[in-house]
Design brief:
The protein is an alpha+beta fold and 291 residues long. Helix content is 56%, strand content 21%. It is built from eight helices and nine strands. Strands 6, 7, 8 and 9 form a four-stranded antiparallel β-sheet that branches. Strands 3-2-5 form a three-stranded antiparallel β-sheet, with no helix packed on it. Strand 7 and strand 8 form a beta hairpin. Helix 3 crosses helix 5 and helix 6 crosses helix 7. The longest helix is centred in the last third of the chain and has 73 residues. 11% of the residues are buried.
């Protein structure tokens, strides 16, 4: 028993030393191996590794995943027109040089975020200050994001950090100018609407005038065609009358007298004062029209 006890103690000490000499690197981490405060090795591949037990060597891990800085409050930035805008943005970044990153920030991610936020703020000011509200809100929004990305990426490179993307999520007017801007936008929309109504009214008048002109032309053509047809009919009728008159003069005279009687006595109650012995009644006295 006395011999077993020292063996157990030795095994325990060996297990402790072995456990402090082994470390695991996960897929999402960098591992920095320090020896007396100096970085001796950087491990970026996942797996099981060995080191000297403390205090000779110790390990610090850094996150190598894609990280996000999402600003909690929108930045108040002034345009070239001296208008204040509230701009909300986010940044995607990752650690690419663990040694440089650790030397700069001591492994403190909060300090890295604060530094990057300050750089983002400066880059936004530099891009927005030289542009109008319209440029920032719509015309050059993509250009601004590209400028901010390039600016911050260049300044973050000496920190061991890579800026992957910069996005402007929301752009709003500051409360003190929102009302005046909305009123100006409303008046502009009213002006455009009135202008469109005027153009529409003028176009409507033009279309109606054109339609009236075409209607008059169509009616004139139709009237001319009708009169031509009527003239042709009258000429043909006159020819037929003349032909019939030439074939039998007595019948033609008799027929025309009948038409005259029909026209004169076609309505009940008509009164006609004529001498019975007049030429008008000759066919009523004699079918031959003789007196």
């Amino acid at each position: 028993m006395k011999r077993l006890f020292p063996l157990l103690i030795a095994l325990f000490i060996g297990a402790v030393v072995l456990s402090s000499s082994v470390f695991i690197v996960r897929e999402r981490d960098y591992a920095l191996v320090f020896a007396l405060g100096e970085v001796k090795k950087i491990v970026s591949e996942p797996g099981l590794y060995f080191k000297l037990p403390p205090p000779f060597q110790n390990v610090v891990t850094l996150d190598k995943r894609l990280l996000t800085i999402d600003l909690q409050e929108a930045e108040r930035i002034q345009t070239s027109e001296k208008k204040n805008l509230l701009i909300d943005s986010f940044v995607k970044w990752r650690i690419v040089d663990p040694r440089l990153y650790y030397v700069t920030f001591g492994g403190n991610e909060r300090a890295a975020r604060e530094r990057l936020q300050a750089q983002i703020r400066d880059a936004l000011n530099a891009s927005v200050n030289v542009r109008t509200v319209k440029d920032v809100v719509s015309l050059e929004r993509d250009v601004i994001m590209t400028e901010v990305l390039n600016n911050v990426a260049k300044r973050a490179e000496p920190l061991g950090v890579k800026i992957v993307d910069v996005r402007l999520k929301r752009i709003e007017f500051a409360p003190e100018i929102s009302e005046s801007v909305y009123r100006r936008m409303e008046s502009e929309r009213v002006r455009v609407a009135n202008e469109l109504r005027s153009i529409g009214a003028a176009e409507g008048e033009r279309i109606r005038a054109e339609a009236d002109r075409e209607r008059e032309q169509i009616l004139a053509k139709a009237q001319g065609r009708a009169e031509a047809i009527m003239g042709e009919g009258d000429a043909e009728a006159a020819g037929l009358y003349a032909k019939a008159y030439g074939a039998d003069l007595s019948f033609y005279s008799f027929y025309k007298s009948l038409e005259g009687y029909r026209a004169a006595f076609g309505k009940s109650g008509d009164v006609l004062v004529v001498d019975p012995s007049s030429e008008f009644f000759k066919y009523l006295k004699n079918s031959q029209g003789k007196k």
